[in-house]
Amino acid sequence: MTTFAFHLIAISVQCGVLVLLAAALSRAMRLTSAQSAGLWLAVIALSLAALLMGRIPLHLPSSDPLFRKSMTSEITSLTTAPRHATTRSGSWHENGGAVSHWPLVNWASVLLALWGSGIVAQLALAFLRLVRMRRIAADARPVADFQRRAEALFARHGLSRAPRVLVGPHVTTPLVAGLRRPAIYLPRGADLSSIELDLVLGHEMAHIARRDLLSGLVASCGQVVFWFHPAIRYAVRMYHDAREMACDARVLQRQTTTPFRYGALLLRLGVDAPSHGGIAVTSRRYRTMRRRLEGLKTAGAVRGGRYRLILMLPLLLVGLPWRPVASAQAPVSSVAPQTTKRPLFSYCVYDYSGMDRHDQYEMSYSAGLPSDEEQKLQKAHQSAFWILHDGRNYLFTDPETVARARAILAPQEKLYQAHGRLEGSYWQVHGPRTGNESRLSALRAYRQSLESSNLPADVKAREYARVDTDMKDIMTRLSDTAQADRQARETLDAAMAAAEAREATSTGELWALAQDAYARHLGQSW
What is the 3-state secondary structure of 122-159? Predict the structure, then answer.
C-alpha cells in the first residue's frame, strides 16, 4: 500500500511535467484545433498508462557515472531497504536522514482512502449523468423533417449513414450521445432556420466522424482517476475546448456558411453545456466561447499536416516516467539475487519516545526487522539496534549500545542530508535548463515543418524571424547556465561519493559494535 502511495505521488508529479511540456509544445508550434485535441488526448492517455503500468525501463549504457548511480539505486531497492524507502515502523528517510513523522502506513492509507473516495464520488456523478441521459433519450422522439436534413448532410462529413435525429423536452442544447449508435438530440421548440439546423447537425456529425464519444471516454477516465490533479483537469479542459473548435472548423470547411453566421448561431444558442454525458455545440464557460469565436477567423486555414503531431510525439516521451536501468553489457549477474532471500547484511536503529499523542518511531537504515520483534519494541516503548549478518539476526536494547550505533550513523545521515540539499540546489539550475532544452527542440521541429508548409511567403518569413529570435534567446540562456550546471553536478557527485564512503565505514563499525556487544552478552540472536 505504501509503495503504491509513493508511486501515485511520483506519477502525479511526472504528469504535471508532461502537461507543462504539452502546453509549451502547443504554444510553440501553433497547432490547429484538431492537432491540439490529439495532443491533449495523448497527454491524458499517457498519464493513465503511466499510473497503470508503472515506470518504463530505459536501458542505458553503464559507463556513465550518473547512470551507474541510477542502476545502484534500483538494485539496492531489490536487495536492501533503500535510504528513500518506507518501513513498517513508519519513518521515511530522504537521502539517509532520519525524519520523524507519524507512522507512514497510516498516512499512506489515508492518502489512498481519500483518492479512492474521490474516484467513487466521480463515478457516482458519472452514473447520475448517465441516468439523466437515459431519461432524455427515453423521452426524445424522431422528427421526419430533421431526419431528412441529416440524410442530406451525413456524406459531407464522411459518415457511412445518417445518425438518428431526436427531439426531447428535457434537452437544453443540441448534443450527440450513444457509443454504438450515436444519435443527435435537439431541444423541443428550438427556433432554427433551415441553414441554422444544418449547421447544428453538421457540428454534431463532426463529433461522430471524429469519434469524439469514444476518445472522450479516455478523457473522462483521466478526470476520474486524477480528480485531485489540477494539471490533468487542465489537460481535460483543453481537450474539450480543442475538440469543440475542431468540430467548428470542420463545419466551416465542409458546409456552405460564413464564420460570422456560425458565430452568431453559437451566441444565440447560449453558453449552457449539458451535464448528462453528451457532447454539445455550446460551452459552459465564457472563456471557451470567446476562444471558439476567435478560432472561427482561422478555422479554414491550413497550418500544417498530420505530420506535425507525429513530430511532437517523440518530444512528449520526455515526460514519461522513464526508469534508467543497466544495459545488456553491464555486469548485472553479481547483483541480482532472488528477491525472496534476505540480504546478507542490513541494519537499523529504532528510537522510540512518547510525546503526548504524537509518538515517534524512527528507523535509520534497514531491510526490515521481523514484524513480531518490531511489535514487541513498540509495545515496550523500547529503543533498539538491530543488525542482520549472514542470515543471522542480532538485537540489542541496552541504551549504551543503541547510543553508540546512533553515533556511528550520525555522520552518514548528515552527509546524505547534505546531499539532499545539494540535489535541490542542482535542480534549481538543471530544471530550467531541461525545460529550455525541450522548448528548443520543439522550436526546431516547428521551424523544420515551416519549410514544407503552404503558408504565404510573408507569413512564413515572420514565423521564421519569431522562431529564430526565440531559439537565440534560449541558446543564450543555456550557454549562460552551462558552467553553473556542470559545477552543481560535480558538487552533487562529490557529496554522494563522500556519503557512500562514510556508509562503507559505518557498516564495518556497526558490525564491530555488534560483535563486541554480543560478546558481552548484551543482546540476543536468532
Answer: HHHHHHHHHHHHHHHHHHCEECHHHHHHHHHHHHHHCC
